[in-house]
């Protein structure tokens, strides 16, 4: 045996050994993983199917809960009580308007309410008698009007009628489910019922997504085991009563045999109403995906073995000869049988190339290391200064000046800028900072803010003018709003984290100072003190002025509060409190105006929108704009109310005084304490006609009334309506009525001619 192995060429020995190394682990690991994976996949398919069935059960339970909630809501409405419904048909119309639940719930086709002992059913579309509903509107195949009435009177608990055929022009489906709920819900004594008409297709749509195969079915059974609805019209198993078998099945997924075929059953039971939900699927289809994956996995394993064997043979054959040549060369150098030096030099050259490639990778990663070290420095996480300096020099970070500090730039609308302009701006700021200081730009921090680590000499008198000059240059060059926050200077490199926090605090102080400022942290500590006045009275006055609709005074008060903040040395957190108090005034005024945060079709900003401001000046402008709209709404509502009252008062005055021959516009204006011209203009705007036209109309109407109903002579008649000249009255009467007063009286059959004496 050993002699036989020694006669095998070295190439084939390696080939056999590599094949063994390939096959043994691959078969052992592959088959074990394959078996484990198939088991997991079976469990996953089963659990997924079960979860989907549970989701359908939950959805169906939710629909039933919604209908029970609607029934309880109907029972709680005073307009739908038996007393109100039996009063008159007006209440029936009101009930119709309250039963339109189907409009907001697409699961329900119709909702009807029946009061025991009353002759009608009420729905959101009409009012029916039981016989009209069952015989004409919803013609049930197996539910007569007499049985319908008896079922409603005997109803004591919610009940579902199984899916059944119904002929109706109001339905898009010819099969419906009917859900009956007694009123009141869960009451011991009932006075009526609520009927929910549900098209079977709505329920089928809920059941359809669970099964991908036509041979399967999904069924719903009630607490008594009665089939309520199924996915398919025809029974799934012909001639088999499946209800007892379903009742005997355990919850979960199981298999059983029917008609000499194996089937997979998934079953869940609702804890809400005790209903059972079941899916039925042939076992071979239920496990089809698993069988497909098993087959693919086996074929895949075979292909891996075949391809692996071929590759091993090819690669071994290709690589064997270079190894042999290398061994010949090495053997020759060391007294062996190796023959060629070229392969060894190529191997050495390859090693040199790999070393060079590694050096390039280190160079490429230097910028990332540099940024990481700057982040570590600005966050104050440096513990050993000298060790950090030595590592920093390797990535070209070198500090030659003794004082360290942090500068932060906040640029308005930086993110919304065009990419090219944004890049140009950042580069310009970075170059300017490097010219003025020994500065390093730090990326990687949150927010659209530029951060710089800077160093300076011990004497820092030029720091403030340099920053001011830089700020002015950036604003003029790019026409932008920018705020600069500057932290304190420190001798210790490890204190840069503290300077970063100070620069951030200074930047936040733009809330008070506004944009376009250079803010030093040292100025903040001098500005803020513990003794300040909170403008509570001014805020309360602002709220009162908003209610009065006084826009100009509100603006003045906002500016006064702004002045208190700017000059009162108020801490930053208290400034934010003042801002939110001012916002609260606006929100309360808007809600009082219309009961919600909108008016006249305009939706005002919500609280989050109101709080998106960078400075108190921004907030003041926002509040002023909102106050203009709000005050206009307030004044508009007040003006409408006042105009309606004024119009009615003017019309009442004319009705009371038109018969006075001394009636005049001036006397009417004196009565209302306004000018005659303003009175004429106001009356014209409010009524669309002049005062004179209205007075003449009233007089002519009264004259026609007296001509029709009395024998009064014309001379006395015109005195009662405010005229004193008979010819003038006759002329105006004919212009208005197209006939003379005498002709008018004759037309109305009065026996006495007009005496013009």
Automatic annotation (TrEMBL):
<feature type="transmembrane region" description="Helical">
    <location>
        <begin position="12"/>
        <end position="34"/>
    </location>
</feature>
<feature type="transmembrane region" description="Helical">
    <location>
        <begin position="297"/>
        <end position="318"/>
    </location>
</feature>
<protein>
    <submittedName>
        <fullName>Helix-turn-helix domain-containing protein</fullName>
    </submittedName>
</protein>
<keyword id="KW-0805">Transcription regulation</keyword>
<keyword id="KW-0472">Membrane</keyword>
<dbReference type="Pfam" id="PF17853">
    <property type="entry name" value="GGDEF_2"/>
</dbReference>
<keyword id="KW-0238">DNA-binding</keyword>
<feature type="domain" description="HTH araC/xylS-type">
    <location>
        <begin position="648"/>
        <end position="747"/>
    </location>
</feature>
<keyword id="KW-0812">Transmembrane</keyword>
<dbReference type="Pfam" id="PF12833">
    <property type="entry name" value="HTH_18"/>
</dbReference>
<keyword id="KW-0804">Transcription</keyword>
<dbReference type="InterPro" id="IPR009057">
    <property type="entry name" value="Homeodomain-like_sf"/>
</dbReference>
<keyword id="KW-1133">Transmembrane helix</keyword>
<dbReference type="InterPro" id="IPR018060">
    <property type="entry name" value="HTH_AraC"/>
</dbReference>
<dbReference type="InterPro" id="IPR041522">
    <property type="entry name" value="CdaR_GGDEF"/>
</dbReference>
<dbReference type="InterPro" id="IPR018062">
    <property type="entry name" value="HTH_AraC-typ_CS"/>
</dbReference>
<feature type="transmembrane region" description="Helical">
    <location>
        <begin position="176"/>
        <end position="198"/>
    </location>
</feature>
């Amino acid at each position: 045996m050993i002699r036989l192995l020694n006669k095998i060429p070295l190439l084939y020995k390696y080939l056999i050994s590599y094949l063994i190394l390939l096959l043994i682990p691959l078969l052992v690991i592959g088959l074990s993983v394959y078996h484990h994976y198939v088991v997991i996949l079976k469990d996953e398919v089963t659990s997924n199917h079960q979860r989907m069935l549970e989701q359908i059960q939950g959805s169906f339970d939710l629909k039933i809960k919604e209908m029970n909630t609607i029934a309880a809501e109907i029972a709680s409405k005073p307009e739908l009580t038996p007393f109100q419904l039996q009063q008159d048909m007006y209440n029936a119309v009101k009930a119709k308007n309250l039963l339109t639940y189907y409009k907001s719930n697409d699961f329900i086709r119709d909702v009807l309410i029946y009061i025991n002992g009353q002759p009608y059913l009420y729905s959101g579309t009409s009012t029916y008698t039981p016989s009209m509903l069952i015989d004409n509107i919803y013609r049930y195949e197996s539910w007569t009007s007499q049985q319908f009435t008896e079922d409603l009177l005997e109803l004591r608990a919610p009940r579902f009628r199984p899916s059944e055929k119904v002929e109706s022009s109001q339905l898009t489906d010819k099969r419906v489910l009917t859900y009956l709920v007694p009123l009141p819900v869960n009451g011991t004594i009932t006075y009526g019922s609520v009927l929910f008409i549900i098209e079977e297709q709505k329920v089928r749509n809920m059941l359809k997504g669970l099964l991908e195969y036509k041979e399967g079915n999904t069924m719903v059974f009630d607490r008594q085991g009665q089939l309520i609805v199924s996915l398919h019209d025809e029974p799934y198993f012909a001639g088999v009563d499946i209800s007892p078998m379903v009742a005997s099945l355990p919850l979960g997924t199981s298999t059983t045999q029917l008609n000499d075929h194996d089937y997979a059953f998934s079953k869940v039971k609702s804890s809400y109403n005790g209903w059972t939900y079941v899916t039925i699927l042939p076992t071979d289809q239920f496990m089809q995906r698993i069988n497909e994956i098993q087959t693919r996995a086996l074929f895949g394993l075979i292909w891996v073995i075949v391809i692996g064997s071929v590759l091993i043979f090819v690669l071994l054959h290709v690589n064997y000869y270079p190894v042999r040549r290398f061994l010949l060369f090495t053997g020759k150098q060391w007294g062996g049988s190796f023959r060629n030096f070229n392969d060894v030099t190529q191997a050495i050259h390859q090693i040199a190339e790999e070393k060079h490639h590694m050096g390039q990778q280190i160079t490429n990663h230097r910028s990332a290391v540099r940024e990481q070290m700057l982040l570590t420095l600005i966050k104050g996480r440096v513990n050993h200064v000298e060790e950090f300096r030595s590592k920093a020099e390797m990535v070209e970070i070198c500090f030659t000046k003794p004082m360290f500090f942090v500068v932060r730039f906040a640029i308005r609308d930086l993110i919304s800028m065009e990419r090219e302009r944004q890049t140009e701006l950042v580069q310009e700021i970075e170059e300017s900072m490097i010219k003025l200081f020994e500065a390093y730009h730090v990326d990687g921090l949150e927010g659209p803010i530029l951060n710089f680590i800077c160093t300076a000499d011990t004497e820092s008198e030029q720091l403030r003018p340099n920053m001011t000059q830089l700020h002015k240059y950036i604003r003029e060059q790019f026409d932008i709003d920018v705020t600069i926050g500057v932290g304190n200077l420190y001798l210790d490199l490890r204190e840069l984290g503290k300077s970063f926090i100070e620069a951030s605090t200074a930047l936040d102080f733009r809330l008070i100072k506004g944009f376009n400022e250079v803010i030093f942290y040292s100025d903040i500590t001098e500005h803020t003190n513990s003794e300040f006045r909170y403008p509570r009275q001014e805020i309360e006055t602002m709220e009162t002025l908003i209610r009065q609709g006084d826009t100009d005074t509100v603006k003045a008060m906002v500016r006064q509060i702004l002045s208190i903040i700017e000059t009162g040395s108020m801490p930053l957190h208290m400034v934010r409190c003042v801002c939110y108090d001012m916002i609260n005034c606006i929100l309360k005024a808007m809600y009082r105006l219309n009961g919600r945060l909108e008016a006249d079709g305009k939706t005002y900003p919500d609280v989050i929108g109101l709080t998106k401001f960078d400075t108190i000046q921004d907030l003041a402008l926002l509040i002023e704009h909102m106050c203009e709209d709000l005050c206009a709404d307030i004044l508009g509502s007040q003006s409408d109310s006042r105009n309606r009252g004024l119009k009615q008062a003017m019309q009442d005055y004319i009705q009371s005084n038109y018969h006075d021959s001394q009636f005049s516009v001036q006397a009417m204006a004196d009565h209302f304490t306004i000018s005659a011209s303003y009175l004429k203009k106001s009356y014209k705007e409010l009524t669309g006609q002049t005062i004179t036209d209205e007075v003449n109309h009233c007089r002519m109407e009264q004259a026609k009334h007296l001509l029709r109903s009395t024998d009064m002579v014309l001379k006395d008649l015109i005195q009662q309506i405010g005229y004193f000249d008979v010819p003038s009255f006759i002329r105006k009467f004919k212009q208005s009525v197209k006939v003379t007063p005498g002709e008018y009286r004759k037309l109305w059959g009065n026996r006495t001619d007009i005496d013009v004496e």
